[in-house]
Amino acid sequence: xxxxxxxxxIVVTGAGQGIGRALCQHLAAAGAxxxxxxxxxxxxxxxxxxxxxxxxxxxxxxxxxxxxxILSKLPQIDGLVNNAGVAIIKPFTELTEQDFDDTFxxxxxxxxxxxxxxxxxxxxxxxxxxxxxxxxxRSFHGHAVYSATKAAVxxxxxxxxxxxxxxxIRVNSVNPTVVLTQMGRENWSxxxxxxxxxxxxxxxxxxxxxxxxxxxxYLLSSNSSFVNGHQLNLEGGYSVS
Length: 241
Hints:
17% strand; alpha/beta; seven-stranded parallel sheet; carbonyl reductase (NADPH) activity; L-xylulose reductase; Sc_DH/Rdtase_CS; L-xylulose reductase (NADPH) activity; 241 residues
């Protein structure tokens, strides 16, 4: 799997922390040329200190035209990981227009814009991977806007798999439950909150960051060469409980 990524050029959004940062490190260790995008210059500098071979580009994906201008200068690529995302978790009655706009702007509008802009640069045999969520297909308290955006991501994934398949470009997503990033550990540390969800997961634990990275790497690699339009649920058996 790792050998098939050597010398491949892969763009990762949301690369400053969490899943994105871990993925960039993993891909670089596999010999890929990684182009890391994040709105945080500081986070990109930290990534560069950890992994000097990664090319870092600061960009605010909420800015449609600036994003297109920056991405238009990139070289031909072999893979794209639309990982950038935000999660505003509130009861439906407390969600504001700003919450709605912020979530949709990053979680789906930016995904659409980045993918459309980079499409001419995707080589034959390329792979596009979306970081989605189990919340795209399951309902969780306080996730109304977040779930709506991830359902849109899954729908876009299937549509692009159909449209881009004839160009030999595959499009898939990874759909985890709670992922134990630093933020995930902080948000789900209380047993009162985590207990009811864990009770529906046969493995009785949440998803580790590396497990998401492994899923993305699989979908980027030639090992998944006949996988297209698929949502890879990383949920420890939640769906069968």
